[in-house]
Amino acid sequence: MLKIESLEVRYQQLRALRGVSLVVEEGDLVALIGSNGAGKTTLLNTVSGLVTGSAGRIFWEGSAISGMSPDEICRLGLSGGEQQMVAVARALMACPRLLMLDEPSLGLAPIAAKEIFRIVADLNLDGLTVLLVSQEVLQALSISKNVYLLENGEIALSGPAYRIAADSRVKESYLGL
């Protein structure tokens, strides 16, 4: 459904994304995890057309969408990069084909954050494809099928959630185990 190939984004001299590639298959719930400043929001903003990549390509259902306006991308069925409950509410009302969520639990009480993740998982079970950006790594791993770990603008790890959860670097750096 969504394929990103060797995406690079620069903010003047700063390389925010470096050769990022990822795939979101129809029906998947894919998590993009990493620390602050890793490039997660930049990636969603580039897919949404809010930021222009300096290299690489973005495909939606096999057609290149790199360089399209945010409105054109939205009309294709991508709802993107929004934070908090607004994005979840829009997903329930607007029926996007791919919902991209950027830190939907940010600033919420733990009980409310847990509910957000439950709603996102339920939306996915109902057939909505989701690309979820989250620093709530344990929650993201618990509901995702596949995970990409973004560090310093590059994909450091990728694979099924169970395998990423078992990785010693993820356990130590992101799960505190």
Can you put this structure into words, describing what you see?
Helix 3 runs parallel beside helix 4. The protein has one domain (25-51, 68-173): Rossmann fold, CATH 3.40.50.300. It is an alpha/beta fold and 177 residues long. Helix content is 34%, strand content 36%.
What value does the Rg take, in angstroms? Answer: 15 Å
The name of the CATH architecture is: 3-Layer(aba) Sandwich
Oligomeric composition of the shown chains: single chain
Helical content (DSSP H or I, runs of 4+): 25-40%
CATH topology value: Rossmann fold
- DSSP strand (E) fraction? 35-45%
* Poorly predicted spans: none
Whole-number total of structural domains: 1
Please state how the strands of the largest beta sheet are arranged side by side.
Answer: 6-7-8-3-9-10
CATH class: Alpha Beta
Report the strand count: 10
